[in-house]
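Deviations from the work plan: none for this task. Representative record:
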Amino acid sequence: MATQDAHAAHDTGSSRYFVPNPSAWPFYLTASLALVVYGVATYLEDRPYPWKVMVIVGALLAFTVIFRWFRGVALESESGSYNLQVDRTFRWGMSWFIFSEVMFFGAFFGALFYTRMLSVPWLAGDGAKLLTKLMLWPQFEAGWPSNGPAHVGGEFKGMEAWGLPALNTLLLITSSFTVTWAHHALKDNKRAKCIAFMILTVALGATFLYFQATEYAHAYTVQNLTLHSGVYGSTFFMLTGFHGLHVTLGTLMLIIITIRLALGHFKPDRHFGFEGVAWYWHFVDVVWIGLFTFVYVL
Amino acid sequence: MAQAQDAHDHSHDHDHDHAHGPEKGIMRWIKTTNHKDLGTLYLWFSATMFFIGGLMSLAIRAELWQPGMQYMDPELFNQFTTVHALVMIFGGVMPGFVGLANWMVPMMIGAPDLALPRVNNWGFWILPFAFTLLLSTFFLPGGAPAGGWTIYPPLVLQTGNSFPLLIFAIHLMGVSSITGAINVVVTILNMRAPGMTLLKMPLFAWSWLITAYLLIATMPVLAGAVTMLLTDKYFGTSFFNAGGGGDPVLFEHVFWFFGHPEVYILILPSFGVISTIIPTFARKPLFGYASMVYAMASIAFLSFIVWAHHMFTVGIPLAGELFFMFSTMLIAVPTGVKVFNWVATMWRGSMTFETPMLFAIAFVFLFSIGGFSGLMLALAPVDFQYHNTYFVVAHFHYVLVPGAVFGIIAAVYYWIPKWTGVMYNETLGKLHFWLSAIFINVLFFPQHFLGLAGMPRRIPDYAVQFTDFNQISTIGAFFFFASQFIFFYNILRCVLWRKGLQPAPARVWEGAHGLEWTVPSPAPYHTFEEPPTGIDAETPWVAH
């Protein structure tokens, strides 16, 4: 490959593109994730292997790798390795990643709409399905919340919208504003103000999660609303659960960004790490508005 | 930059001191962030999976040599049909296409690499782990998943020990596909050389841009569907349990909302390959470049509104049958545009018939057969007869093997001189082509007749009157499989046994256009660190 030297020659100058060095982190990350899922599979099927060891070791390794990998990227960014084109790459990449997350939630929203608008009414004889009702469950009447004609999980009470969930809506919407104010403060080079708003945002996110946990506890202990409560319980807990998971992740990311701000990272005109996390935070906010509308209110 | 590159022996200043040549040994492949290395890894992974999946299909065809049970119990037969499909789709065709995208997209658009090279490495290295998990299930008590690759509940929920590994393997494959797709989209949107406008891009890049969009939009939906299966089985949810108010048909809707775009994910990159090869060997610019782009975009759009044609017999409302029948038939329009354009490109061309061109022409002809049987299956009332018969098997194998797989083979012949710097053996290539083209038809054409006569798919035993056509099909399968070793040998010659082979010039094919032909063969480890110039000369498909 004689041509390589020629290419190496102009590489020592200012190459237009940033091409990272080889890295073993992706391989280690996959290996540790494979260990985690093998452990979980072992647990689910009750197989005679030490699943706890696999899950804990795998998860610790995965966290370590993710931390080191992202730390490397942050340091590269701070060292000025990334030009405007790399910045655009990150913007596009984050946008498409959020789009994929939207589609993931779409699957569960689809399940909610389908069961609520179609399968539950059909089971109660709607449309052409009268025979279904007569032959299988003549007593069943459609309605929502529903745990189906077999009353899976027993009697339960659906979730009310206008208590904690409404407050949580307020909290998340407020946090979208505070993170935007933090962004403006960063752009105006007012770092202390920015950090203060970030701490406020993290606090709002954490409070949301605390209320969500309280709501779950109440559902399980008082309302007999569990993951087993038929299709209402399934859609309720899967939708809000995955959302809660994303809020948790988002809060962690906000904390890391706040720490980076305190360490002096980011510049008023160059701070995509901040913006990417802010986008993600707005995304979980928008998903929550969809959840509040379709899961709680309607 | 005090991080990952500890082992790296360059000095760490603040300039971009990335590796100029590959590292040595196994760590080169584990740590590589180079699009060519990763393309090579993807392609070899794909070849390995084609081999494993092919062995399973031979086991299936051997069992179907005659009625009655010969070599295996029905349970193992069902495991083979299920895992054969998963391995071929997610392990063979998709990584094959991603490998081609890795190698060719940056070179075609004048970029130095993919936009996110480390993520690219991650996307590849997920695959060996995911398929190790999936294939390891054969050795678990109860064996591998046997409910069909479409994993419909409630049947699939009866899977034993292998169930969670199946689900997690699919999750991992999804992560791999999404990361790979984001990488390709971002590369194409952000890394094009100055002057390479979107409508000057080679069609292979266009086909991958659209494919990647489909992947990002649908793989998360599959992840959601299999997650619901997991919670239904282990955590007491009722998504697919009518007693709890759910519906097994819900799974089919969610699955096929992923599954139908997935079908086009499996063919669009081949469209791009064929649209590249035919103009080269017809020595004419592609006929109707812009209409090709619009046709692919239309196919991608329509793929989101046709999913229930996989479910005509499940009991969806009449309005649904009609809507999905008509929307499905609409796809014939953009597909017809594409086939017309390929033929019109050849019309009055100065044609030669090197191996890539032979595979490309066979693609146009045989893929159209698969398209026509697809049109038949799209007719809801007729589908009631065809559903779950070997006619369906024949249909989708016609679009997948002489469609998707011939596209990959054609691409390998077309670009392997660029990858390795030497010419493959044309005589062996032609022999490989003719054996493949003949035996693929011996293999799959009789399955149309079997299906129309009523032989159900996914059943290891059959009525005696189906024996003749099954035996023809099995003969075709074994000869087709054997023919691929010629291909394998031809590749190995270029890669390992290169002594005395004819070196390839930069522009390997005299009629070829595109930036990849402006760099030497083999392409240097890093291409286009400086943006290329002279793009207009390499894009004859647009009027300048």
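The longest helix of chain A spans residues 84-123.
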